[in-house]
Amino acid sequence: MKENKDKNQQEYQELQLSADEKSILDQLGIFGKSRRRFLGQSSAAGLSLMATQFIPIDKVFGQETVPSTPPVPFKNAVDVSFSINTKTQQLTVDSRMTLLDALRERLQLTGTKKGCDHGQCGACTLLVDGKRVLSCLTLAASCEGKEVTSIEGLAENSELHPMQKAFIKNDGFQCGYCTPGQICSSVALMDEAKNGDASYVTEDIMNISENLTLSDEEVRERMSGNICRCGAYPNIVAAIQEVHQGRETDYNWQES
Amino acid sequence: MRPFTYTKTEDTAQATSKLAANENAKYLAGGTNLLDLMKEDVERPDELVDIGLLDLTDIKETSTGVSLGAMAKNTETANHPLVRKNFPMLSLAILAGASGQIRNMATNGGNPNQRTRCAYFFDTAMPCNKREPGTGCGALEGQNHMHAIFGWNENCVAVHPSDMCIALAALDATVTIADGNGKTRTIPFTEYHRLPGDQPERDNNLERGELITSIEIPKNNFAKNSYYVKVRDRSSYAFALISVGAGLELQGKTIKNARIAMGGVAHKPWRAYEAEQFLKGKEATEENFEAAADAEMANAKTLEHNAFKVPLGKQAMVRALNVALSGEKV
User: What's the burial of B101, exposed, middle or buried (CB within 10 Å: 0-12/13-18/19+)?
Assistant: First the structure.
């Protein structure tokens, strides 16, 4: 028995395994000769892949286990609580943290994109209390009690939002990076048209009623805060007009 | 971005006294310009006082006109029935600026306090008397096609970027300001912003700790015949090369009164008094509009890359007056 143990130890040294690697192989139940054979067939880097099954899945993908407070206390910390996609979140953030960074870095909601980070491109557009705003120019600390909706919160019960469906159907994107911002902006735009909000190109601004029907020129003007580097603009307008006016276009590539 | 402490208050007096107590503190309203400048290391406050909760959001009729609360958003202001009906030039000017998202964030009190978008002001590697007094002006002999043609000197050739302020200057608005001692004062909007003079680092006449609480616009008879023209490098979501707000009060075909202000031309919203004077009592014709614009542009002083602003300014003013007169956008 003692002899066996010594032999095993000798083999470990021979293989020059780290403690982690040793533990993975132990848990896989690979010892002695078979361990040597196994290692001969697999690369050292590949070994770590075998370990994924020992990590609880929610630590990799889940939001539930993300700590709301960072482990180390830091200067200028602000406690803030707001609702994101109908779920209340409590965070302690650096006063400098934008809403965009809070969603992406702290809440693992990476659907909202960081484009220019200076309020010039619209990629970070989301809805705060139902209005479209730029999350890159919003401090997380200023969001106390607000209701935030991001692209992840538009679908209901795994049914896509009509605007999401229309963007897919009308091919309203190419690389897709500006798309979450475009869609959030478009969703807010539908409400703005219903409310009778004007734009710079609206005719007869003194006498506007509710439930505006927006021309393509109106849609382009009202969406000008969302830049698309791929130039998918005609298809984006088509997608919006399908939801807004029920207008079918040639851009539609899907059988409906 | 440099570290800062963040506090918020629902009390105007508390906000102003915080700012009076710390010269490195700043108010945070919509944040659309301030946070951008902090990321660029141009603005370096060590304290932000969030005034988003101040009870200054009313837009209401008063005995003399309409009062716009400082914390009302630009979108609400542009779409408020009182503003649309009485001051459509202001609605159009606000809607010509920025994007839907930014107008939803930006406030009436914050808009006049936004800083210039001069690229030399934004670039901390460049000299800029506005950012760092005494270092010189990078734009004076640099890329200055966006820069001033009125009221500038060698200290600063930057322009004020606001559209909303152009309409407010044209419409004889006044600004109500609270200080840190619980007192208020009211000044004409045209005296709120400054020309660069020998203190280009000062954009306006707001003293330390002071806060705009509201903007008042007096009743007028320009609503029916007014317009706001904005010319830019692209058709939307860009700062003005030239903008013109114009309003006419007509008696038959005669111009009883005219109100004209220009954007993209000076360190402050530029009220076109020469053109207004010329038009007063004259017939509303294109010839007179052109002559009025010539009278205004005669005082222009151009830089290496912005001489185009003189003919463009004239044409934009004539167009604004034509549309104001006929209601036909051409």
Answer: buried
Pull the structure tokens for residue B200.
Answer: 């280009």
**Best B8, B76, B104, B329 residue to mutate vs chain A (most A CBs within 10 Å):** B104
Domain assignment present for residue A98? The answer is yes
Check: CB of residue A154 under 8 Å from CB of residue A161: yes
Cβ contacts of B103 within 8 Å, gap of 6 or more: B73, B74, B75, B78, B94, B95, B97
| Residue A240 shares a structural domain with residue A170 | yes
Rounded CA separation B315/B290 (Å): 8
Is residue A61 predicted with pLDDT exceeding 50? no
Mutation target to probe the B interface, by most B beta carbons within 10 A, among A94, A116, A132 is A132
Question: Helix, strand, or coil here: B230?
Answer: strand
Average pLDDT, integer, range A5-32: 61
**pLDDT mean over A32-53:** 52
| Chain A contact set for B39 (CB, 8 A) | 117-118
Nearest Cα neighbor of B226 from B269, B259, B273 is B259
Handedness of CA B34, A184, B89, B235 (dihedral sign): positive
Q: Examine residue B240 and state whether it is found in any structural domain, yes or no.
A: yes
Domain of A231: which CATH number? Answer: 1.10.150.120
* Overall average pLDDT of the B117-136 stretch: 98
pLDDT at B16: 96
CB-CB under 8 Å, A117 with B39 = yes
CATH number, residue A112: 3.10.20.30
Could you say which of B52, B102, B104 has the minimum Cβ distance to residue A142?
B52
CB-nearest partner of A224 from B28, B91, B236: B236
CB < 8 Å to A196, chain B: 79
- ipTM confidence: 0.97
Quote the domain boundaries for residue B241.
223-325
A and B: number of Cβ contacts within 8 A: 106
Find the mean pLDDT for residues A91-98: 97
Sign of the alpha-carbon dihedral angle for A66, A122, A208, B62: positive
| Nearest-10 Cα torsion for B86, B87, B88, B89 | 160
- How many of the other CB atoms lie within 10 Å of CB of B227? 24
CA distance B300 to A103: 49
Residue B184 pLDDT > 60? yes
Q: Which of B117, B195, B149, B156 is nearest to B304 (CA)?
A: B149
CA distance B120 to B142: 9
Is B265 in contact with B301 (CB distance < 8 Å)?
no
Q: Is residue B295 part of a domain?
A: yes
Residue-wise pLDDT for B144-166, tens only, equals: 999 999 999 999 999 999 999 99
Q: Say yes or no to pLDDT of A18 above 90.
A: no
pLDDT bin (cut points 50, 70, 90) of residue A223 is very high
% of chain B at pLDDT higher than 70: 100
Residue A76 and residue A91: Cα distance in Å, rounded?
A: 13
